[in-house]
Amino acid sequence: MDQGTQNRKGSRYAVLCSVVTSMISIIFGYDTGVMSGALIFIREELGISDTQQEVLAGILNVCALVGSLVAGRTADYIGRRYTISLASILFLVGSVLMGYGPNYGLVMAGRCVAGVGVGFALLIAPVYSAEISSAEARGFVASLPELCIGIGILLGYIVNYLLGKLPLKLGWRLMLGLAAVPSLALAVGILAMPESPRWLVVQGHLAKAKNVLLQVSDSEEEAELRFREIKSAAGIDEDCTEEMVKGSRNSSGEGVWKELIWRPSYPVRRMLIAAVGIHFFEHATGIEAVMLYSHRIFKKAGVTSKDKLLLATIGIGVTKVSCLIMATFYLDRIGRRRLLFISTTGMIFSLTLLGFSLTMVEKSHEKLEWALVLSLVFTYVYVGFFNLGLAPVTWVYGSEIFPLRLRAQGASIGVAVNRLTNATISMTFITIYNAITIGGVFFLFAGSSVLAWLFFYFFLPETKGKALEEMEMVFSKKSQRNATAETETGQNV
């Protein structure tokens, strides 16, 4: 083994920890993807209405809203690892209830339990990944949960296609119940991973934090530097002993809400606006409508058979995962802002053309092959651009910008807004397109993407390469354009 390989052991271990943690995101992604196809069969067997379908699809996110608000305080109180384990147990219970599902009420109950688990998972996986990685690799590591969501969605689509051939009463129940297996494995397996060193410092476990940093850093010097920066950010004096820290600190997250919402400092206020805004626009631009109701969109475009509908949704999953893989490697090279601008520009273009092609299909009295092809192509293009930037950046950005003392509960506010917006879209999509046509909905999403582009330009400073402990300085700058100019000038010197 050469010296270069030995020197990368720590960062590779940090990536391994993030990969294991991100299994929770695969389970969540699977639950989202598999429900898209399962709805076809649930509707057929249980005879549910369009409104019941919307509620079943969207209730996951309503419950995730509750879960995300509770998860921040929970993560501060019991730690990042045990919070991931708790989320896995919730997924396990929810999957068993949905897989059993003799009636609509019990399927809903299982979906609600799994939804609370989603709220926990969406908060804790990126926060843990960001806290355990170095600044140089944080974009890659913290984007792994979003990549794993994409992999889970693709797996859900594939399982839909394979199990859709089984008898009606068995097929969709197996689709929904399979997630119980990895949930159980993760609930136990995550306990073998190290705790977040930043959480350990806040709790006063300085020796344990130092040991973890030695494991996830590439040298003792790097571990020592990161240890000093974390202690400084946590307000711990260099000469404090572990006993002194434990005896003097309030480490359960109390008082955080006042500092976040009631009396925020200027940089914290900007952080909160940035986190809430990016989480809102991730779903206000319509991705959940495509991921959950792709079979309806393709059916409107002219695809009719169940097999072809399920195959077309697999294409969405493949596009999503491919672009997320690309994004994970470019987040730390290109930067968060540039990827967001590329992503939202492509989304505006593709959503406009998707709205146009679906409008042409709907207004025509005969089958338009060219409009069908355009609808399929620009659905995939939209999914591609979304996952090239907005999808991974949202979760990396929201998990990295808050100061250590505010991170878990600050990120939980962003996740709550994310789930609320997601629930609104998923529970109203059918109703809205019945009111303004399906093409009109995508024109609406295109307009929302324009607003998103403007918001990112004015409110989101670049965080690429910045240590977590530097974020207050980044958000202290009064002018985003000046801050960007300073960054570019520094890079050119």
UniProtKB/TrEMBL annotation:
GO MF annotation list: carbohydrate transmembrane transporter activity; symporter activity
Occurrences of domain Major facilitator superfamily (MFS) profile (ranges): 17-464
Main subcellular location of this protein, as a coarse class: membrane
Pfam families, alphabetized: Sugar_tr
Annotated Gene3D superfamilies: MFS general substrate transporter like domains
Transmembrane feature ranges: 12-30, 55-75, 82-100, 106-128, 140-159, 171-193, 272-294, 309-331, 338-358, 370-398, 410-432, 438-460
Protein family: Belongs to the major facilitator superfamily. Sugar transporter (TC 2.A.1.1) family.
Keywords: Membrane, Sugar transport, Symport, Transmembrane, Transmembrane helix, Transport
InterPro entries: MFS_dom (IPR020846), MFS_sugar_transport-like (IPR005828), MFS_trans_sf (IPR036259), STP/PLT_plant (IPR045262), Sugar/inositol_transpt (IPR003663), Sugar_transporter_CS (IPR005829)
Protein name listed in UniProt: Major facilitator superfamily (MFS) profile domain-containing protein
PANTHER family for this protein: POLYOL TRANSPORTER 3-RELATED (PTHR23500:SF453), SOLUTE CARRIER FAMILY 2, FACILITATED GLUCOSE TRANSPORTER (PTHR23500)
Topology class, membrane: Multi-pass membrane protein
Hydrolase as UniProt keyword: no
Gene of this entry: Vigan.10G166900
Subcellular location(s) per record: Membrane
GO cellular component annotations of the record: membrane
